Amino acid sequence: MELEARNRIDSYPHRRLSEWTADLPDGRIEHIYTHWSAHDYHSVFPAYHFCVALDESGDIVVVNTHDVRENMRDVYEDPDAPYAAHTRGRNSHALGISIMGMQEAKPEDFGAYPLTEPLIDALCLVGARLAARYGVPIDADHVMSHAEAAVRDGYFGNVENGRWDIARLKADPRPLVPQDAADVGEELRRRMRGHLELP
Ligand SMILES: [Zn+2]
Fold first, then answer.
1. CA of 199 to the centre of ligand 1 (A)
2. How far is the CA of 163 from the centre of ligand 1 (A)?
């Protein structure tokens, strides 16, 4: 099926993961939010600034789907001007990064486009480099998953209008609980900090 231009990797600046650097404009960024797209591995979305996707040959690519400068402001002062709307009520001075995948995923069954270790690790590398670039502390108040934000703001869960990205890294029949968001959020931050210790 042919994707619309706005959902195609080729419509945006993109690099293979091994060639990606956070070569980005100066500005005020205070938060980074992690997501999954709830679609397939190839469709990308300008609601995020960076999408971790798979290209036609199955290689991981980092796709810059939204200009970071559009979120370097209080977006709610002028909500009609364009910005990436990735995390409800939290898009001012905030970047959204996302793994493409998890279409029709449930906590107990991740479906046809599950998270994979290479995709998770790629997201953590992107998050680490962005945090370093913009001086964002990698702690639970500054770098959080959409699920952690949803817990704080009262819309967490695998329910209609709820969000649970990224509250689980593997499918598990246990009921989804807010502690899952906290645990996985901490695991993602641990892995991001690990990337910054590399030379
Ligand atoms: Zn999300």
1. 31
2. 7
